[in-house]
Amino acid sequence: MNNRLFEILNKQQGKIIQSKDRKIVVSAGPGSGKTYTIVKKIEQEFLCEEKNKNIIVASFTKEASKQLKEKITVCVDVNDSYIGTLDSFVLKEIIEPYKNRYLRCRGYDSVDRLKYRMPRRDSDVEIITRQGIRKYNIESIKYELNRWIIDLSKGVYEISSLTYLIAIDLLKKIPSAQKYIQAKYSAIYIDEAQDLNELQHKFIKYIVNKCSLNSILIGDKNQSIYKFRGSRPELFYKLKETDGYTEYKITISVRCHPSILFFSNLIIGDKKNEKYKGENHVYLDVAPIFENLSNVDNDFMVLFENNSDAIECYKYCKKNSIDAIYTKSLSLTNKKFENDYLELIEEILRFRCNIFNKNPKLVYSIDSFQNFLSDSYIMINSKIIHKITNYKKTEFEYVISILKMLKVNIDIEVYDELMIQLNDPMIRNHYINYTNVNRIMTIHSSKGLEAENVFVRIARIPYIYDDEYKRKLFVAFSRAKNNLYISYKKDDINGSQLDLDLRKNYSIVNGLK
User: Fold this and answer.
1) Nearest of 143, 141, 146 to residue 131 by alpha carbon
2) Which of 65, 96, 235, 224 is nearest to 159 (CA)?
3) Hey, how many other C-beta atoms are within 10 angstroms of the C-beta on 407?
4) Are 28 and 37 in contact (CB under 8 A)?
């Protein structure tokens, strides 16, 4: 990055960090220092003279929240603040402490310990989350809310988007709960806010306004690729008009070469009336992608639209002695068991695979694993970790021993499937923390990662070449730091609108007519 761009970046970030606006929405592109800006903004918040300095910091995943917490705690003491997922905040600070008063308001008896459950993927509540409230039958929503409350009265807590509507209702019916949030917290920070769904937006709007919280939402609408989960990026970038937010932008990337960022913006319709002047590091090549990997000096990442193509590439690399790993996450046939225990199993794997990581910065410590166990939805007693002494077991043996220690019932089909998958190096690799490593994966798996050289293989004309698909390509292209290679078979997309767009944008970046 040259001095001029660095000066612009500092100015853009500084405006956000020093802003006194109560509601802030930040649109920040890939590699623009979103995490740095959040951390410095929080540090600034704690320097003010307000007595109430506890904050809520929520991110999309537990892993992202953990990384945020590690960076924030270097600067300030946040022991009384909340840092984690938004789901966990609603459970711990609203539902759990006030569940019995809420049940009594609803005419039910109190409950003691809660059991936790995920909804089926084809359930009405999942459809409501994906389609939004306005597009779904209001009577069905009322039915699902009543069902959720009845389940709660039986001690079953369903971890679904309905909890946000329940939380709003609880805060309305129990004024002391609303006063508690208002008294304890002064601000809420949301990272990756482009991935929020409609019900999450409703909840944030309610507590910001009713509990007098400062609000800082940061994200990138162009990196929203979770529409299938219900994300509503349009609600994020309309906050200025709909809810009176002050908008800031960070347009400089410390990751991507300028030509790569410019090309990525062209694919989603930005920068279309601008010209690029500078050296080009984008390469459009319809030749097969595999043969190019042997000629790459620095680390690389190869991205595909599906796992089958990624596996084919991985096999090619192994056969030709090209150093690369392919990773895929654990997936079980028994969806009830997966819903109940997949998160736990994956975290056990991360701990097992990284407790003795060769890089000290990437070690998953016992203390962190203890925090996860005590922080988990299934509320495992954290003291149980002290009984774990044997790290010499295989990943499968280790996971099974922990599950048995936690008295989790495992039927023979699940046991056999876990044995097969956990002995698969492709799955084990998924849970190892790496610094620089050559990766082969799907585009969806690559979000948040980066590499010096990124190869993107477009396998076919997309079923629907729409804004969602363009955002998916934007995410793929913007993983590249120094060189971006785009490859496809001529017969797959030749003559399609995607082919025309890629060639047109490639010409613009190269200064061609």
Assistant:
1) 141
2) 96
3) 7
4) yes
pLDDT band of residue 510 (cuts 50, 70, 90) is confident
Tell me how far apart the alpha carbons of residues 318 and 207 are, in angstroms, rounded to a whole number: 53
The tokens for 343 are 């998160």
pLDDT value for 21: 92
CB within 8 Å of 47: residues ≥ 6 apart: none
- What are the residues facing 216 on neighbouring strands? 24, 189
User: Tens digits of per-residue pLDDT, 432-489?
Assistant: 888 778 889 888 878 778 889 999 998 776 667 888 888 889 889 989 999 999 988 7
Please list, residue by residue across 361-377, b when 16 or more beta carbons sit within 10 angstroms of its beta carbon and e when fewer do.
Answer: eeebeeebbbebbebbb
Numbers of helices and strands, H then E, in the chain: 22, 14
- In sequence order, the 6+-apart residues with CB closer than 8 A to the CB of 331 are 338, 421
Look at residue 513 in the predicted model and tell me its pLDDT: 47
Strands, E assignment, 133-178: 156-158
Handedness of CA 282, 288, 290, 292 (dihedral sign): negative
Structure tokens at 258: 């300028």
In our burial notation (b when 16+ CB lie closer than 10 A, e otherwise), range 212-235 reads: ebbbbbbbbbbbbbbbeebbbbeb
pTM for the full predicted model: 0.72
Rounded Cα distance, 513 and 504, in Å? 9
Give the span between the Cα atoms of 211 and 442, in whole angstroms: 41
The torsion angles phi and psi of 100, rounded to 5 degrees, stand at -75, -40
| Rounded Cα–Cα distance for residues 408 and 513 (Å) | 64
Q: How far is 173 from 101, CA to CA, in rounded Å?
A: 9
